[in-house]
Amino acid sequence: MKKHNSKKKHEVVLTESRGTQREDYLSSLRDNVRKFMDECGYTMDELAEIAEIPLSTFRDFIYGNTATVKITPIIRLAKEFGVSIDELVGADTLPKETKESLQILRRLPEHFSYFFRWSIRATERHRNRIKPKGKAVSMIRPICENGSLKPSNDFDLIDISDIPLDKRAKIFMGIKIPCEHYMPLYSPYHVLLIANDRHPRPSEVCVVASSGSLWLVRIKQGKVYSLRDDKYRCDEDYIDELVGYVAAAKILEVQND
After folding, report:
1. pLDDT for residue 123
2. Kind of pairing, strands 241-251 and 232-235?
3. What is the pLDDT of residue 49?
């Protein structure tokens, strides 16, 4: 049996069932198996062998001549395609965010996916330091380079349990200021707590991503102004991503040597 391209498998856009009846799930399952055949070059013979079922049984399934399918062959096909049974069947039992994260992780090169797996485990370890009823978010420590903030692999968890509830509920990440460029507004001891539940107001500091860097700006009437000198930089349409606005700022305790 020929070896199929894993990268190509991860680019297949799977169908989700539009109903809750057995026939709906069979239809989306059949559609998804066909997609792997069409886009990745699998043959009926190959998939029947992988599923460990007779070729005639597999053909009946593909052509809709059967109303039942056993779970074990489907598990074997899901393993071959590198997807969950939920995704292959189109059952839509996984949250949208979880599926999106899984799909991104599968497309990444192995050394990147290893790092993200490590990050998840590290975040869990850090989270265990937080009080049971507290709230913590991931805090990244960017590097200051030529006036911009470059993302790095250095991150931690920051406890935001002391932030007022109305703001705390919206905050999803923290960014540690690594330089003095933004003084007197923010010092190198500040952590910016970011929310993205709405578009930032003209008076609010927000974080945008552009050209591989993070920038602190204000957005007024669709135009982006630098926080450092309040000069116009570009129209909002030209930034890569609006990360969010600064909902609160927290000062880290100074560590005495």
Report:
1. 62
2. unpaired
3. 94
Q: How far apart are CA 11 and CA 104, in angstroms?
A: 10
Q: What is the pLDDT of residue 246?
A: 97
Q: Which residues of 163-184 are buried (b: 16+ CB within 10 A; e: fewer)?
A: beeeebebbebbbbbbeebbee
Helices 22-40 and 71-81, axial angle in degrees (round to 10): 40
CATH of 126-251, one of 1.10.10.10, 3.20.20.70, 2.10.109.10, 3.20.20.150: 2.10.109.10
CATH class of 6-107: mainly alpha
In the chain, the percentage of residues whose pLDDT exceeds 70 is 84
Q: What is the pLDDT of residue 94?
A: 81
Write down the residue that tokens 């606005």 correspond to.
245
CATH 1.10.260.40 in the chain: give the residue spans.
6-107
- pLDDT at 180 > cutoff 50: yes
C-alpha–C-alpha distance, residues 22 and 45, integer Å? 26
Question: What is the tens place of the pLDDT at every residue in 31-56?
Answer: 999 999 999 999 999 999 999 999 99
User: CATH 2.10.109.10 occupies which residues in the chain?
Assistant: 126-251
